[in-house]
Specification:
By secondary structure, the protein is mainly alpha-helical. Helix content is about 60%, strand content about 0%. α3 crosses α6.
């Protein structure tokens, strides 16, 4: 793979946190989110922060972490506590929290670290931007982190979250672009 996963104790711990909470379809999505985003976003990216954000960005959808607040807020809170316990500086913690909170925005994120999570998730969920991924890189990522039953499982999680939080990020995306209907049309599944 051209893009590699950051090699640090915090990156390893974030991957383990995700592995412990996320079902396989969601864990693989988190890895793909980072790898696709990192392959397509240029600029001054804090790759360790982007990887941590990608691994934690959907943990608010899991049975382990689901709360009364919408999933992005829960995930950002999980990340903030996790990084605070690891002694990260407040500015870097905020960067990770913002990458998580902003990954569902329809407007393109300017901050390259935030953009990695946003672009990677967008490619993996609906395929927008897939053309920027080198075909060999795509094949390698999908072989290492297969999609499994991602479309149906993510669709179910999306609808559940949308119903639980009708003013939340997923409901906003549904009203704006009908995103739930785009899951099954992702060209990544025809690659």
């Amino acid at each position: 793979m051209r893009v590699t996963i950051p090699d640090s104790p915090t990156a390893d711990a974030a991957a383990e946190l995700a592995r412990m909470a996320a079902p396989p379809f969601l864990l693989n999505h988190s890895y793909r989110t980072y790898l696709f985003g990192a392959a397509t976003v240029a600029g001054d990216v804090d790759h360790e922060a982007a990887f941590v954000a990608a691994m934690i960005h959907d943990l608010g959808l899991t049975d382990t972490h689901r709360g009364t607040q919408e999933f992005g807020v829960v995930s950002a809170d999980v990340a903030g506590r996790f990084l605070s316990n690891r002694g990260w500086e407040p500015d870097r913690i905020r960067l990770v929290e913002q990458a998580i909170l902003r990954h569902t925005n329809l407007q393109r994120e300017d901050d390259p670290t935030n953009r990695v999570v946003q672009a990677g998730a967008t490619i993996d969920v609906v395929g927008l931007g897939l053309e920027a991924i080198d075909r060999d890189e795509l094949t390698t990522v999908l072989r290492r982190y297969p999609r499994l039953d991602f479309v149906s499982e993510m669709h179910t999680a999306f609808l559940d979250e949308m119903n639980r939080h009708p003013e939340g990020a997923f409901a906003t995306l549904e009203r704006a672009v009908g995103i739930s209907g785009m899951f099954a049309r992702n060209p990544i599944d025809r690659s």
